[in-house]
Amino acid sequence: MANRITVQEIQDFLNKHPDITGIDMLVPDANGVFRGKRIGRETAHKLADDGIRLPFSTYLLDTTGQNCTTIPYGSQDGDPDYACFGISGTLQMVPWAARPTGQVIASMFDDEGNPFFGDPRHILKTAMQPLTDMGLTPVVAVELEFYLLDKELTPGGRAQQAHSASMARRQTMTQCYGIEELYEFDAFLADVEEACEQQGIPADTAVKEYGAGQYEINLHHIDDPILACDDAMMLKRAIKAMARKHDLCASFMAKPFEELAGCGLHIHVSLVDKDGNNYFAGPVDEETGVPMRDTLRHAIGGLADTMAEGMGIFAPNANSYRRLQAGSYAPINTAWGSNNRTVSLRIPHCTENSVRVEHRVAGADANPYLVMACVLAGIHHGLVNKIDPGRPVKGNAYESPRPESLPLTWPDALFTFKEASKLKPYLTEKYWDVFEGMRRFECQEFNRLIPALDYEWYMRTV
User: Fold this and answer.
1) For a pLDDT cut of 90, what percent of the chain falls above it?
2) Would you say residue 174 has pLDDT above 90?
3) Are 407 and 311 in contact (CB under 8 A)?
4) CA distance linking residue 370 with residue 289, whole number of Å
């Protein structure tokens, strides 16, 4: 588990990089957006001793970066500051900066030294504590899908696939797992790989995904969920930066194109006990063909039982719900199964040592810390209550609707979120209620605006 950075770690970094001019202090807000300050070299020590102060409302903004009038923070409480401290191991150089610049992830603490209730990193630590108390260590991996887009929208205001300079064209075909499509943006992918190496981001495979212009870069399995989410956030930052360098736009929107696959944030989780054994592994199960114990069934049962409550986090904005469509490889129910990509909760093909569950519900637009918190909470809920997930689905899960329905519109999801009882204690009641207020504010603001489609459909018709 990462600790606060020390003055010595900062000084060693400055000695190694004597020409550095500043450090980007990065804090992940509720939307999974990095905010913060660029501090000078001469004040870098404050990351370890006094802290760098920010309004704590910085963590509680909507996606557009404005205060939410539906919560009692921001202008309503005078917008006070708290101190942010750097996290050990996250201080790295920024390869794409115009001047020598560092970056560091920071977490916020109140004036009494307590973790700030609105910091997603603290929320994840709180949510995973019940599993830790059971002597279980989550081993997790994050997968992120994204589109490479043109920086300019079409004349009609729509996104378009990036133009490949090497092929002098835009991608128009699916070509899932196509190798040649990787070479069309080989320079971009090479720069992402190099940036990850320089920053210690444990990126693994890169694949061409199902949509035209869609890609995925995976991260290694590690036994620290907070660090795994730090890596996911830094990977997104690196991908976006390298796309800008190549005059492209990397988008993690859940659904940039109606007719193409959406972008998911998939979480792989196994549990290791005190003796280093896979807590899910066991004899071969007749229904799934997987070497699994009932503990994995119970974990999946808990994830299914809490899935509807967590949709406000898994699908946090208006565009998120455009991804959740039948036949799109995005889940629409609580189905589970083995080696089946149409389900929400998938057991990948595995050996006894690698038995795990893949949570496929969240979009790439979601906050990875909060998604991970809900996933680990759902697993604990299932284990302690020994929840039966029912029969696994074989074949097309979209044609086998389960009775456990999910809220597939933003207002329905926010209503379900507000009434939640199972996940709320894991993420703390205070944060849960504030997050609901923030999402409700953004939903109201979104619905208040009049899109061009309103005029096209209604101005002359009704």
Assistant:
1) 78
2) no
3) yes
4) 32
End-to-end CA distance of the chain: 60
Of 360, 362, 325, which Cα lies nearest the Cα of 341?
A: 360
CA 207, distance to chain mean position in Å, is: 18
Task: Return the HEC string of 297-318.
Answer: HHHHHHHHHHHHHHHHHHCCCH
CA 218/CA 228 separation, integer angstroms: 11
Is a pLDDT exceeding 80 seen at residue 172?
no
Residue 281 DSSP label: E
pTM metric for this prediction: 0.95
| 255 phi/psi in degrees, rounded to 5 | -150, 80
The number of angstroms, rounded, from the C-alpha of 443 to the middle of its chain's C-alpha atoms is 20
CB atoms within 10 A of CB 163: 19
User: Is the CA virtual torsion 200, 206, 209, 212 positive or negative?
Assistant: positive
| Residues 375/309, Cβ–Cβ less than 8 Å | no
| C-alpha closest to that of 414 among 304, 315, 324, 266 | 315
Residues in the chain: 462
Residue type, 364: A
Distance CA 52, CA 36 (A): 9
pLDDT band at 77, cuts 50/70/90? confident
* Phi, then psi, of 252 in degrees rounded to 5: -105, 20
90: left (phi over 0), alpha (psi -120 to 50) or beta: alpha
Regarding predicted confidence, which is higher, 185 or 292? 292
Tell me if residue 36 falls in helix, strand or coil: strand
Distance CA 455, CA 440 (A): 25
Give the pLDDT confidence of 374-422 residue by residue, as tens digits: 999 999 999 999 999 999 998 888 886 665 679 999 999 999 999 999 9
Q: How confident is the model at residue 86 (pLDDT cuts 50, 70, 90)?
A: very high
